[in-house]
Hints:
- The protein has helices spanning 3-19, 54-67; strands spanning 28-30, 39-41.
- The chain is mainly alpha-helical.
- It has a two-stranded antiparallel ribbon with strand order 1-2.
- Helix 1 packs across helix 2.
- It is globular, with a radius of gyration of 11 Å.
Amino acid sequence: MTIRETIAEGVKEAVQKTYATALDTVELQATKKEFEGDLTVVVFPMLRYVKDHPERIGKIIGDHLVGR
């Protein structure tokens, strides 16, 4: 399993656990140079399925991934 697949699976788990919503896909992109990291989870496409603030969704996903 690649790191992209591992992250996408963790994101799907976090959203399912918190919002009882299954995501079909998770969008990842290269992190902008002015930020730390290699990959960024794009939260905005999830707003169609998850009715919450983007910052809160990102925090929940991040906490879940760190706790894995």
